[in-house]
Amino acid sequence: MSKISKISFLFAGISLVSMSIVRYLLGEWVPFCWLALGLAIFFLALALIKDRVFFKEFFTMKTTKEGMSMGVLIILMIALLAVVNYLGVRHAKTWDFSVSQSNTLADQSIKLAKSLDSDLTVRFFYKKGVEGNEENRRLFRELIKKYQDQSPKVVLDFVEVNERPDVSKEYGVDKGSGVVFMDYKGRRTRVEKIDEQEFTSALVKVTREKNKTIYFTVGHGEMSLDEAKEGLGLKSLKTLLESSRYTVLPLPLSQNPKIPADADVIVIAGAIQGFQPFEITALEEYLKSGGSLFLAIESQNSAGLEKIVNKAGIQLQNDYIMNVVETKLGRGVNQGPVMGSTFSMSNKITKAFPKNEITLFRYPQALKTVDRVDGIQVDEIVKTSNEAMAFKSLSVSAEGPQGVYTLVDEVTGTWPGGTKPFSMIVAGDVDFLTNQLLYQNLNRDLVLNSIASLAKEENLISITPKEAQATQMFMTETKFGIFLFAFIIPLPILMLGASIGLWMRRRNA
């Protein structure tokens, strides 16, 4: 190559570099860029024309052709990788190989995310330097990514409290402890915990256009909604429902035997004084018009509600169910909380319940389906195990009949004389709703799922948190010896031998 061509290539390179620097510094294309580009093309053409014979011979050489072929292959490979990465970003797909599917969203979460028709803005407030915030941010980012994989409408925004004080003030946040808010169509709610269960519940709250109203009957000795200190109060239940954006109100049915028009669910929790005939009539008329009723009835004190239950084909057994236990002293009866451990796997309320987990009741009575009523279906959703006995009183003096007993039923269909489908939950106990037992085991899930089903909000059915399960391997000494001498030791030796053999063969080639 001649000296002139080398100088021309140098000037062409300087012109291109100058053009790039000016374009970067000014942020826009200016006339100088055209001048620099023109000079680069001029010097490049001059070099090619000046030594055209040299370049012709160079490009017709065998080594050049082989090098260019390799260059084309490299360019094609880079282009292929770029396309694969582009498609991977635009159409992301993940696979969950964990035993408990802990990295996969529940069906309810997926359905909610895909139903979004406007941007859902999720803001995570934090403060730099606060211990644990970085880990919380990482965990929250991983959680939100699962929802973003289902819908592009989910927008995540991390807000540093000190760097964006205007936004922090708007949300009333002055601490950097990982506070999360969710905004959707002008509605806002707060996420209390970083897990799928709480996030999906908050998502339901913020997407719901109208609050559902739940009425609790009063005036019959029902458990108090305002009692927070006593274990048998329902204050925790009221707080839980209100946090799920339900409106909870009292219903003095004995004073005004008319069901409010905005009643989405009516709950009768542990009434001990009899309902008057006109109150029973009002409740039945409510069911005929497609209402939803939750009956939690104590044993041997049905308060006249058996008139409603019997019409559904269910008979209250007025007994006390207790668990049988095996002790060192022999067989005995546990008079503590009774376990409901068998759940309907086809019912929407309980089908998501994990195996080997339980609900707890205190001296529940059994429910027995005795008659099949036309137009009414009874689903036995919670039962005891076979290790349960029934007693007619709490004074246990001898063994009672042992077996599986139904504790909670879901009743659906059309009430006799009605025109619209109704729904009803019948439970042979009220204590599982109380402050003491509400947050024990799966009680919370059972209650919230039942209310959500009655309120015709299946997407609010709570999601039981998934726990990672470890895969364990137990090996005997014999199995470990086989594993060691048949795999651990021979494999590295074989790989080392193969490597040496390949190296020797290439060296002698």
* Unreliable stretches covering 5 or more consecutive residues: none
Total beta strand runs? 19
* Rg calculated over all Cα atoms: 36 Å
CATH superfamily of the largest domain: Class I glutamine amidotransferase (GATase) domain
Biggest beta-sheet profile:
8 strands, mixed
- CATH fold description of the largest domain: Rossmann fold
How large is the share of residues in beta strands?
15-25%
Total helical elements: 14
Shape: elongated
Q: What is the CATH first-level class name of the largest domain?
A: Alpha Beta
Number of domains: 4
Q: In terms of structural class, how would the helical and strand content be classed? A: alpha/beta
Strand order of the largest sheet: 6-5-7-8-19-18-16-13
**N/C terminus separation:** 37 Å
Helix content: 25-40%
Average per-residue pLDDT, rounded, comes to: 86
What are its keywords?
single chain, about 500 residues, alpha/beta, Glutaredoxin, 4 domains, eight-stranded mixed β-sheet, four-stranded mixed β-sheet, about 20% strand, elongated
